[in-house]
Amino acid sequence: xxxxxxxxxxxxxxxxxxxxxxxxxxxxxxxxxxxxxxDKCALDGITQSDIPKAAISEYLNAPKRTPKSERKQAEESxxxxxxxxxxxxxxxxxxxxxxxxxxxxAKAVDGVQMxxxxxxxxxxxxxxxxxxARAEEYRQRAKGIIPNNPEE
Length: 152
Description:
Elements: H1 9-21, H2 31-44, H3 50-61, H4 67-107, H5 111-143
């Protein structure tokens, strides 16, 4: 019995090399979509493998991002933005109180009373500045300018 001819030695060598070097990735899509893809590739003058190869390469080289870490980062950013808003409101309220206390202290005649109001005014003004500083820090954390955890 005669042996079936399976190609030239060069073809066998090429097939052996390709089997050793490359792997096949099979994709099943609807026939209409596959035909449209083939037609568009022919129209653009590119091989059908160029697009999947580029997509796989891009996917492999992309930084690792998990939906859970993105969600956690978004929550931290949102909570920092909310904290900044709260601190802004607190700072504004404290500044308003300090302003009104300054008016009351200025109208008082008793020296002791003026000293008391001046101390309260200074304390509230300091607290307002601290609240504004915290608000700015939370805004920067929300924007990602500074890390959310100081240990990072």
